[in-house]
Design a protein that fits this description.
The complex is a heterodimer of chains A (169) and B (130). Chain A has 169 residues and is an alpha+beta fold. Chain A has one domain (40-166): Chemotaxis protein chec (3-Layer(aba) Sandwich). Chain A contains three helices and eight strands, in the order αββββαββαββ. In chain A, a hairpin with a 3-residue loop joins strand 1 and strand 2 (34-45). In chain A, helix 1 (16-23) crosses helix 2 (83-112). Chain B is globular. The relative contact order of chain B is 0.17. With 130 residues, chain B is an alpha/beta fold. The termini of chain B are close together. Chain B has a five-stranded parallel beta sheet with strand order 2-1-3-4-5, with helices on both faces. The chains are: A alpha+beta (169), B alpha/beta (130). Chains A and B meet through strand 1 and helix 2 of A and helix 1 of B.
Chain lengths: 169, 130
Amino acid sequence: MRLEVIRDLPKKQVNFKNIFQDAIIAEMNIYNQAHLEIDTPLVLTRIVHPKTQHEIGVQFKLEGEIKGNIYCYLDTFNKDVTEKEKNFFQLLFVESMNILIGRILTNIEENDDLIAILSNPSFLNLKEQQQVEFNKGSIDHEILAIGYKLIATQNEYDCRLIFNLDKSN
Amino acid sequence: MDAQKDKFRILIVDDSDFSRSSVARMFDTDQYNIIGEVASAKEAINILKDRKAHLAIIDVVMPEVSGIELAEYISDNFSDTNIIMISSLGQENIIIDSISAGASDYLQKPFTKEELMASVEKVLEKVSSK
């Protein structure tokens, strides 16, 4: 009888912080209607709290060679905008995040040859936003956060992107 | 087609309202006629069954039927309709899949009006020369 020894080879650890840092877009013009620029740098984090009760949340899923979720938040606290303007900013925000993330993923493919597939965005209601769990302390996940300013029609909004990335694949 | 006598008919397919309207706004000359701005493949096919389009501008990532699947369908069933794919993603495999599905060009979002017009004019040259 022949015995085969099967052992788990140590997985190569992916350093998402470096991969995303190199791929980050500093600023971007969105169809001459808005401007996105970095406000706070990319950081590795472990705990993510809701900022205010006035955040609009959108989730994108990542599949492929990078798996996880991306949560994007637009803070509308203390903004004197009409319902029509708010609706416009929601649409603008979702498409801006879609474009920003798409560009970042394209850079990651060019730099590191990793292909990630981006899902359609889905809105998070406030309850869902509060329920989002970020696997605190899990060795299988890495959480990265970055802040942007979304500037349009002379208004300036704070945006946050939270990358909750699965390190186990 | 004689470009002097008829306008180029264009269909825009993108599930993002903002992107759709931004693209439509770039066609601000009399040369173009936007025959539809729709959010899904199903709506796009319904329009194409009724009205001929010279060009369909299609977003890659859409719910239910993807832009690439729609491009394949249009290539097979509405062969006179040229296709330009648009997406925030610029990954090589997606561009190759888009071209294989029948797209004549691929633009990564956000693009400028000049970039879009250069692509449209290049694609529609084929229509004018027919």
